[in-house]
């Protein structure tokens, strides 16, 4: 019975039986290796044998080492690492056993942020180049030209220029990537001390391996991921700065295990033996699991011992640490992404239009081929010469390829290389711009990826880091108010002390006056108490230094605390010594020791810090500093300075300063004894210890006396507020993505004008997925109810490949919202809520809410989250995105954005290395976008449009001629004349436009940032405009051909009696085409200069003068271009030639001129008006409004302060008391 063909037979996979009605055929004894079973027919066995033989053969091929090697090499060429991941969730590192560790085959410590390497260059470069459809088209054309008997032109006329184009592009790519390799080499060749035997020797970072023990010294960056063993500080403590990783400026504390803390010299650390069990490399910056086995005892490792690559050792002389992850396996590099291949919108749109032109070219060639068939194979030839039908169709195919080659110049082959040259030229202009050169650090702006210059003119969203990008990461004690008097470090003329009508002094004293008042003034006691509080109430650790003016360097976990202690030292109250139970300050060369009784630590709930001390006179004092809201509500009834202090806080707020209130209290001995018992009980509580300590602190932090307030400046980079304000006027939305705390980020937001007083803040600090979703959904719903209909009906959709193609073909849908139509909003969201908001079920709601806001601040975000935010906006919108940062934590978002900008000039940072553009200061972004970006976008748009136009205007005349010559494939122009058109006579016009044309000068573009919207809305280059130029080219070619044909009819006779031949007519037509396209270049040029003259009038003069010279020299000396013999003299002596040159160009361009006139006078655009202002130098009266705007700004800042009092103080929460209790700065630290 044939089981294979029986429809009633089934196979039971559960019991291995074939079943047919009541008959069962058992299958047993299955052989796993062969795939055969006994109890089967020969037919079935044969089929199964073939099946499994093929499967086994394929499996064996895939399992073979050769296949694996070839596959690995191919994946390397594609830039993918397919190295198998270890199955074990831990790696085992032997201590002081490099031989055993080398067997682990861990990754080397070299890093690469370059785009290419030896393996990937060919694949990636060709992939990028042939993503440009023009190159694909010319490659196909070049291959067709190699078919014998097909090409009417030399077989090298296409493949040679294409090769030159690819070679030029390759050289440019190699040159640009070479710079990245040089930067990587600088990083890889840094020096570090490595333990070899029983001593440390200097090695390069690239030579480090997993298991090596290294010595890292103060201010150095960690070369890999390390586990801390010991340090120069007590109890193996050390301070690190992680701003490269998470943007936080606060110093973090790391502490080695007590069992390794005594390893303070090379001999001791070289004797340890054991195993370190470490988690496999991953991208989580804030978690770590590991175990170290020492002397048979397993000790757990936590993030408290982890030192990450990219972090910097601060305020610690040295540390010993063991390497656990190297190179691209470090957490920093795991958060980085591969350098992408970026393609601009202009290039993508040009690619699509090339496809359409190719379709037109195919249609024209097919039409001409059919015409050739119908013309040449008439009935007479078919019957007389007995032509075969197959031969007919063969000739059609050959004819089709012939016409493809004849018309292939409709798509300009010079376009790609011209664009590459112009982009490189624009990058040189950017690099050499003296206005965006930073003289202090000798850092020019660098354009590292020149093929993205036009994207600078279309940016809609900027994603910026805060620390080091907007701020200088420098805190400075600027002002204070003490006992009803104001003091400032620098007093300007408008702030000096003046007496009012009632004799009350108003204004600021300088700090010199404060020092004088601290010795002799009515308020001397308050001043002394104020300055003593600054010098005593903190968690700073002093370290003697000969370089510091105060004689000490202060190790502060908070930059704010460091600034306050340093400020007190500059005023004569120098913090000198910290012991476990006391602190000492020096006042007028006298040491004063304060017994440190208790510390009530800072946290975000308390918003204050207090210390209880016994002063040298034996009095117990409570010193408290914190936010005004929490200090004011704890004051006693007798506080004469409250109103004045509040007024000063409002003044400080208008200047964006970070403020603290300072208060003190005398504590009776008996009250302190009772309170201290409660404190010690809370400190030893096993449950809710932190809450109990906070409760006990409340008992003593009462009845305070307000001493005054301080104002610290978180110094912004120069020009940041004005830059952000100007970019906002240009309709560019700025999102700040920072690792800093929310309060700090909001304060900086107001300081730098990202947040304004009229904005309503939407603050999202939810703890769970559901509450985050509910919050975003409710806020979005309530906002939409009060907004215009077009906003509420807006719908974000995933940018799939098809949707992207549709947007390129039909133009992108404008999804942008005019934010002037809606209430000014700003969104502030923390990292935890953001993690939920980026999940698939919530990301669209989050994106919609965020895009309705004028500003977005994301706090406590990881590097990976930064990249995910950029990718989210990129995925659902058509906007051009720019990311800017200065640290290694910004590399992911810089590479994810369309344009990546790095802040350069700071040693050890990787952002500039991985970026497309590198600038020294954030303020340079203003000119880079508004001026260079606008120029590049306008120039390249014109270049592309003009390049297509001039080729269509020229080579469509071949098509019209083909209709008249019986589809013979005969060319109208002499071969070398055709070549000279693109290579000599019209090559300079688009280049000059691309390099020197200016829609407006730099001053006007900066003064009127609203003009930047032209690029954002693609008003210069879009589908409508592109096809308008194409149709104009068709019209000009049609007019040129038929007007020339009409003028140079067969009856025309030259002065010497000869009738005009084909080549004479071709030269006339070529001259007319050249005149038309060069005049068109003049018509679209905004900025005339000598290069424009050379490229237009000079090119035409070169043709007219060079034609008779070439027509005489080339045939006689080189034997080429015989068609030009005797052509020039009859033409130049004939009237009709000059009439043609006068009449036809005027007729063709009359429509263009009328259209331009109509647009400027009847459909006036904003840039037309500004062009008139520039031309006639009309003064701008808008600055007169500046004083009014400043006054309104100050009033609104005060209103905001009153409405939402808070604090702006950055300090680590908890754990500081334990750390400072371990320090004794009088002890000599180990040298290591």
UniProtKB/TrEMBL annotation:
It catalyses: ATP + H2O + phospholipidSide 1 = ADP + phosphate + phospholipidSide 2; a 1,2-diacyl-sn-glycero-3-phosphoethanolamine(out) + ATP + H2O = a 1,2-diacyl-sn-glycero-3-phosphoethanolamine(in) + ADP + phosphate + H(+). It comes from the Eukaryota. One of its GO terms (molecular function) is flippase activity. Its cofactor is Mg(2+). Its EC number is 7.6.2.1. Keywords: ATP-binding, Magnesium, Membrane, Metal-binding, Nucleotide-binding, Phosphoprotein, Translocase, Transmembrane, Transmembrane helix. The active site is at 465 (4-aspartylphosphate intermediate). Its main location: membrane. Residues 912-1163 form the P-type ATPase C-terminal domain. It holds the Pfam family PhoLip_ATPase_C. GO terms for biological process: endocytic recycling; phospholipid translocation; post-Golgi vesicle-mediated transport. Mg(2+) binds at residues 465, 467, 886, 890. This is Phospholipid-transporting ATPase. It is found in: Membrane. One of its GO terms (cellular component) is plasma membrane.
